[in-house]
Design a protein that fits this description.
The chain is about 70% helix and about 0% strand. The chain has 21 helices and no strands. Mean pLDDT is about 80; it is low at about 150-160 and about 425-449.
Length: about 450
């Protein structure tokens, strides 16, 4: 007998043994035993060993083998269920090409897991919302750079989204999450629900931080900005105001104070932009400050009209604003040479200013009413009262903006100007006033701005 005939004989015999073992499995249906299954898989191994180059095998043998393999695959789930394939693979180490050793049991879905698809969908939705809130929060905090607290909050949210997102959306992440939940003794059928709960907590945290932006965080930066401005540090004040506005752009108070800051460093266009936001919200501080800009620009009648309008609406419970309105109204009247009326309004401002006798309690712009009144007395020819008022002016005046300081030069009071407290307007390194007019002789300075 030739070697080729012997090979075919061994292959045919192996195929027959394979067919018998497979037939027993098919007959057993749900009563398949591990020995039967193991015998079948070993029989298939024997066929593989007896199978020479396929070009040397008869077409009938190949067809018979393909038919049997199809039947074997149809029994794959039963074999994986009733056999011990994992243990056998550890002992025999079959190659991956021996696919019959790698059948997988059918996936048994617990009735409690039938809504896992819904929980996973909700988890994805909450992560998307959390990411949206986090991005907006980061953008809001990012004006001028982030502080330690903001960095920590943003990183914490980002890390949470990354961890939960990886666990919910990737197969490797799901395995790690399941291992973690298993260590926490959480049943497998609750994995999707627990992941959704964690994502919901993250969403609540992201939303909580986001919703606090217009109120808590904005107010926090605003208060810091006001503190810097009272100290005369307008650069830091501007930085804090811009962060506050970025978080709450509709807050008229912040807009008005930022406009005041710009006005104090002679950036009138930027100041007007901020004041207009305040006027839209009926903020009378903005009305006062817009009026002051009209005085600086020489439109005294418009300034007077706006200031009188503001005084109709401001109550006695707003002494600082009342002081400014009376002071600027007196200034506008002084510029129109309406001296008796200017004297009357400036005295009202001075009476309010006297309620704050301590220099440290006085806000920027305090004492300027005394200066305007001194010029009023001088213009009326009352030198004695003017001299007395100039003393008070020099002692208490704290110009709030550069234009107020410039006024001393324009009226020829250089000796007083050099002693005036200018700490509120000179600490911004960007501030580079035009000193050309200041260096003019008094006779060369125009009577009005």
């Amino acid at each position: 007998m030739s070697s080729e005939a012997i090979i075919f004989s061994h292959l045919d015999k192996a195929i027959e043994e394979y067919a018998k073992a497979l037939s027993l499995i098919e007959e057993a249906i749900s009563n398949q035993s591990k020995p039967q299954i193991l015998k079948l898989l070993l029989a298939r191994d024997a066929v593989e060993e007896a199978l020479p180059e396929k070009t040397q095998v008869s077409q009938d043998s190949i067809a018979r083998l393909i038919e049997l393999d199809g039947k074997l695959k149809s029994q794959g789930k039963a074999i994986a269920t009733y056999g011990a394939l994992a243990e056998w693979r550890e002992s025999l180490h079959p190659p991956e090409s021996s696919w019959w050793w790698f059948f997988l049991p059918p996936k048994i879905i617990d009735k409690r897991d039938r809504f896992d698809w819904l929980w996973d969908t909700l988890t994805t939705a909450t992560l998307v919302l959390s990411s949206s809130f986090m991005i907006h929060t980061f953008q809001s905090f990012s004006v001028g750079g982030l502080g330690v607290l903001e960095v920590f909050s943003t990183i914490a949210q980002g890390a949470g989204i990354a961890i939960i997102g990886n666990g919910a959306l990737t197969s490797d992440g799901k395995k790690k999450v399941k291992a973690t939940l298993h260590r926490l003794n959480i049943p497998p059928y609750f994995y999707s629900e627990v992941t959704f709960c964690f994502s919901t907590l993250l969403l609540l945290g992201a939303y909580g931080l986001h919703s606090s932006l217009p109120h808590y965080w904005s107010q926090k930066y605003y208060e810091i900005g006001k503190k810097f401005y009272r100290q005369g540090n307008v650069k830091s004040a501007e930085y804090e105001y811009l962060k506050a506005i970025n978080l709450n752009p509709d807050n008229a108070n912040i807009r008005t104070d930022l406009g005041l800051l710009y006005e104090s460093i002679d950036e009138m266009d930027q100041a007007i932009t901020q004041y207009k936001h305040g006027l839209e919200s009926k903020d009378f501080q903005s009305l006062n400050n817009i009026s002051r800009i009209y005085i600086i620009k020489g439109d005294f009648v418009t300034a007077e009209s706006l200031l009188r309008l503001g005084l109709q609406y401001v109550s006695n419970h707003q002494p600082n604003l009342q002081y400014k309105l009376y002071r600027n109204l007196g200034w506008a009247l002084l510029q129109q040479k309406k001296y008796p009326e200017a004297e009357q309004e400036l005295n009202k401002a001075i009476e309010i200013d006297k309620r704050f006798p301590n220099p440290e309690d006085k806000l920027p712009g305090a004492g300027m009413a005394n200066c305007f009144l001194a010029e009023t007395w001088e213009s009326e020819g009352n030198k004695e009262l003017a001299k007395k008022e100039w003393v008070y002016c020099q002692k208490f005046a704290k110009p709030e903006i550069f234009a107020e300081y410039k006024w001393f030069i324009e009226v020829g009071e250089r000796d007083i100007a050099q002693y005036i407290d200018t700490s509120k307007i000179i600490q911004n390194p960007r501030f580079k006033p035009n000193l050309g007019e200041i260096n003019k002789l008094p006779s060369q300075v125009n009577e009005t701005p």
